[in-house]
Amino acid sequence: MRIIGGKYNSALKYIASGLTKTLAFTVSGFVIFIWIEPQEIGLWQSFTVFTGYIHLLTLGTTSGLNRELPYWLGKGEKEIGINRLKAAGYYTTKLSLGILVLVGLISIILYLTSSVTIDFSLMLFASFSLSAINIQTNFLGATYRSNNAFDKLSQIQWMNTLIVIFLLPLIYFFNLWGYVLYQLMNGLYLFWGYFYYRPYRVKYEFYSDHLIELVKIGFPMYIWNYLSTISKTIPRLILVIFGSPVLVGLFAPSTSINSALLNLPTYINRYMFPQMSYKFGETNNMKLVLRLSLKISISLFIVMFISASLFALILPYVFEALFPNYIEGLTAARITLFSGVFYSINAFLHNTYYSVKYFNPIKYIVVFRFVNILISTYLAYIITENLLISVAIGAVTAEILNLFIHIYHFYRISR
Predict the structure, then answer these.
(1) What is the number of other CB atoms lying within 10 angstroms of the CB of residue 108?
(2) FRET label pair with 347: which of 223, 242, 270, 354, CA 20 to 30 Å apart?
(3) Considering the chain, what is the average pLDDT of its residues?
(4) What is the distance between the alpha carbons of residues 179 and 44, in angstroms, rounded to a whole number?
(5) Model pLDDT for residues 235-282, shown as the tens digit of each residue
(6) Separation of alpha carbons 397 and 7, rounded Å
(7) Helix 38-51 to helix 168-196 angle, to the nearest 10 degrees?
(8) CB 349 within 8 A of CB 225
(9) Confidence of residue 3 (pLDDT cuts 50, 70, 90)
């Protein structure tokens, strides 16, 4: 892709380090599935499926900063951008600390009143604490906008690759609780790395006007992004509600492999979104941004489709050789791979609309994904009577149909 090379050397280093980190996580994930039984993985993921909802409390401030900081820097209005950064930092820091304190108290009270077991209480605290840490990490990530900042992110990711491998013995010796600790330590390292290398070492301050602007711009962005992301968890949520921890565990490889495949578009998105916002602020030329987005989308689709096809071919051998306990989830994993192909393009076009402040079609696209995945899953279950395969089919169908809607709106605004 043309974004890699020349003046985009920072993009090359960032994406390369990110994909290497992804490879380490993928290999580690295979090892984890060998060491931990499906019902144990399912137990932890049954907690984490609910923690994503806590990010609603950010009110979209991080999403707003993601768009506003590079936009105002592109317009040459650095002071406005920095003041919005300070306001977002103040709010998210207070929010993260508040969640940590509150979930700690709730966990202790539930245990002391014999409402839950010690294991339940600790897992509740661990899962929501990790979510609180991620809120702060996401904010810090939004402040990395320049090529030099992305070079720092590359360093963080190279180090994270080593840490992922170094922490694996925790899982071998302590099983499920080792896995929980593994997740927490990775989350803490990323927060520390983002904080240590942060490009703007400013004191966070409460600016009501800038905070209000961030919420006005960021909350619509966040709520639709959030619902779009949550829609990806619907298959797992269906399995939690209508299935069992074993089915959730059997679906875990599908989630992990799909997440691994989506890392390339994720890193491209993270790099290109501020670039497109900056370019729009600098030129106020929507068509220039859209032409760039179209070129990247076509190249990305080709790369993702080939990658998913190769993964689908080798997965049977991987399952049989490395984690036969999850073999019942093989078909679902192969189907889910292709939902990632179409989701990656949808997500990139989604961010393109945000960079040029074209918000109108997003709500229809996201709502349609929810409705379609539920209907598709239900229809697939009527035909197959297999809940695991049905949720995978529902995910693919939703993404394919949503891509057609994206193409329609893209054509409309680019004329």
Answers:
(1) 12
(2) 242
(3) 83
(4) 9
(5) 777 887 887 777 777 887 777 777 778 878 888 887 888 888 888 888
(6) 38
(7) 20
(8) no
(9) very low
User: Which residue's structure tokens are 């301050």?
Assistant: 205
Please give the DSSP secondary-structure letter assigned to residue 146.
S
How far apart are the C-alpha atoms of 363 and 359, rounded to whole Å?
Answer: 8
The four Cα atoms 285, 291, 294, 296 give a dihedral, to 10 degrees, of: -100
Select from 178, 340, 370, 169 the least CA-distant residue to 257: 340
- Write out the two tokens for 185: 């330590």
Looking at residue 212, what is its pLDDT? 92
Handedness of CA 314, 48, 162, 270 (dihedral sign): positive
d(CA 67, CA 278): 9
Q: How far is CA 126 from the centre of its chain?
A: 19
Calpha distance 163→159 (Å, rounded): 6
Are 68 and 201 in contact, with CB atoms under 8 Å apart?
no
The conformation of residue 202, written as its DSSP 8-state character, comes to -
Q: pLDDT digit string (tens) for 43-92?
A: 777 777 677 778 888 988 988 898 888 888 888 888 888 999 999 999 99
**CA-CA distances (angstroms) from residue 299 to 109, 350, 407?**
53, 17, 15
| Lookup result for tokens 């990530």 | 141
pLDDT digits (tens, 9 = 90+) for 317-358: 888 877 788 888 888 888 888 988 998 888 888 888 888 878
Residue type at 301 in one-letter notation: F
Tokens 């070492």 appear where?
201
**Other residues' Cβ atoms within 10 Å of the Cβ of residue 78:** 11
Residue in this structure with the two tokens 């495949």, named with its chain if needed: 261
> Chain-centre distance of CA 401, in angstroms?
21
